[in-house]
Amino acid sequence: MTNLGRTGASALALLALAGCDGLSMLHGFPEPKIAVQGALPIDMPYRAGKGGVVILSGRVDGRADIDFILDTGAPVTVLIDGIQTAALGFDTTKARPLGPADDPASPVGVIQPGMTVAFGNVTLFGLSAAVLPEKSLACPEKYQSVGFAGVIGADLFRRFVVEVDPVAARVRLHDPAGWRMPDGAVAAPIRFDNGHPFINAKVTLPSGATLDLPLHMDTGMNAALALVVGSHPALVMPVDGEVTRACYVGGIRDVRTGPPVAVAIGGAQFAQVRPGYSPKGDGPAVQQGGAVGSGLLSLRRYAIDYPRKRLVFLPTSNK
Question: Under 8 Å CB-to-CB from 53, ≥6 apart: which residues?
């Protein structure tokens, strides 16, 4: 779920398609096979989008090079049927809702099984994806401006420890059996609910109140922190602050920027974080308690240890 630019257009809300009714259907996807050429760890260069969003180039079915946003908030792979994917010949004439109609992150699309996606030396076979017609998106021009046509999430993540190095602009896939937390690293547990990852964070408001909040961990969201008014008694809409538009696949909402807060996740501390506030019920179902995105996570080198269900903030040095 990605906020795009000053307009607040949230491109990756399409990942929330697996949040509710849609996920019960998508959970029936067969497990893709993964082939790795060479020894782990494997480095994959990436292009950083606004807010530190990770954009990887993958070759789909050997026919088209597609830019994918790497998103922990996406339990399944998503592709947009548009100009960048024209060579794949998708047929979305029978697209249907893939989630509840009242969720702005619920897309309209079709399920495409048996796909192959190669990210350098890592290839996924037998991959099922949700394919969304570009014309069905609420703000297609915002997606086009970022230059991506797909989203890859747990399909790629779940077999590895996935390190994101914002300084080197590299994603590193580690073998979980041999990977250990380095000295100086700190970790926070991840809880999974219907395929979506959640972490607990302490958010200190300007008033001095510190709140314990369960937040959706969404690396596809380029904003740093999303807070939902009413999800905690102390969370109220700021009186002042810029109002921007968040554009999801199924709708648009207003977000008001609030004064800086401090955020602690595990042993990692983040100061002067600017949150965006929205009314309860306006955003995706999976974000009704709030969310933390790449706008915050990309301030540190971090790893998502799916097998051990933890988020690890790493020392600056790779050594």
Answer: 2, 12, 69, 146, 219, 220, 221, 222, 294, 298
Mean pLDDT over 78-99 rounds to 90
Contact 8, 104 (CB under 8 A): no
Tell me how far apart the alpha carbons of residues 25 and 284 are, in angstroms, rounded to a whole number. Answer: 18
Tell whether omega for the bond before 176 is within 30 degrees of 0, i.e. cis.
no
The distance from CA 259 to its chain's CA centroid, rounded to whole angstroms, is 24
With beta carbons less than 8 A apart as the criterion, state whether 91 and 110 touch: yes
CA-CA-CA-CA dihedral for 227, 228, 234, 239, to nearest 10: 80
The pLDDT score that the predictor gives to residue 174 is 97
List helix spans (H) across 59-210. Answer: 140-146, 154-157
In the block, residue with structure tokens 């042993």: 267
Categorise residue 114: left if φ over 0, alpha if ψ from -120 to 50, beta otherwise: left
- Token reading at 284: 């995706």
Domain 1-319 top-level CATH class: mainly beta
Look at residue 219 and tell me whether its pLDDT is greater than 70: yes
Q: What is the pLDDT of residues 45-73, one digit of tens each?
A: 999 988 899 999 999 999 999 999 998 76
DSSP state of 285: G
Phi first, then psi: give them for residue 117, nearest 5 degrees: -130, 125
Question: Over the stretch 21-36, which tens digit does the pLDDT of each residue have?
Answer: 333 344 457 889 999 9
For residue 120, what pLDDT is reported?
Answer: 92
Report the amino acid identity of residue 30.
P
